[in-house]
Specification:
By secondary structure, the protein is mostly helical. It has helices at 3-9, 33-40, 55-107, 111-121, 125-137, 145-152; strands spanning 14-21, 24-32. It contains six helices and two strands; from the N terminus they run αββααααα. Helix 3 crosses helix 5.
């Protein structure tokens, strides 16, 4: 068996970590161990600790063990980070909805309300919708949305 054959048999070069939330898969993290290993093991010229060990098997077992422990640590941190970020995303959803509700209070809830507003200001519906979407995507708060629309057109400040 050549060294290339042993390397092929030593296990997968790509490891896929399945990310689950409440038991449902939501994504995957793929790691290419062949590319990651040189970044981890800088000691490429070290020899096997004892003469009687098969150097290729030692390398393969060491690599598998280190990769397994690395993935375990990554998984723990990934779930903690994912949990933290999901809470932030939930808060962002609430903020987004509140901004949309504020726009509904300022401009009305029907297409007729928007048509009337656009006609009063001499602008086009496209300008209004551009203004509205920019307002929703902007991170800052606008105190008087209707005043902002009338004063500044399509650029909320």
């Amino acid at each position: 068996m050549t060294q290339a054959d042993i390397k092929k048999d030593s296990g997968p070069s790509e490891v896929r970590l399945v990310v689950e939330v409440d038991g449902n898969p939501v994504g995957f993290l793929n790691l290419d161990i062949d590319r990651l290993w040189p970044l981890i093991n800088h000691r490429t010229h070290d020899t096997v600790p004892v003469e009687w060990m098969d150097a290729l098997k030692f390398d393969s077992v060491m690599r598998a063990s280190i990769a397994k422990r690395l993935l375990s640590r990554i998984e723990g941190r990934l779930y903690q980070t994912l949990g933290d970020e999901m809470v932030k995303a939930e808060l962002e959803i609430e903020s987004f909805i509140m901004k949309a509700e504020a726009a509904a209070q300022a401009f009305g809830t029907t297409s007729g309300d928007i048509e009337k507003l656009v006609a009063e200001t001499g602008r086009t519906p496209n300008e209004f919708y551009t203004f509205f979407w920019q307002y929703l995507l902007d991170d800052r708060e606008v105190s008087d949305l209707k005043k902002e629309w009338k004063a500044n057109g399509t650029q909320p400040r």
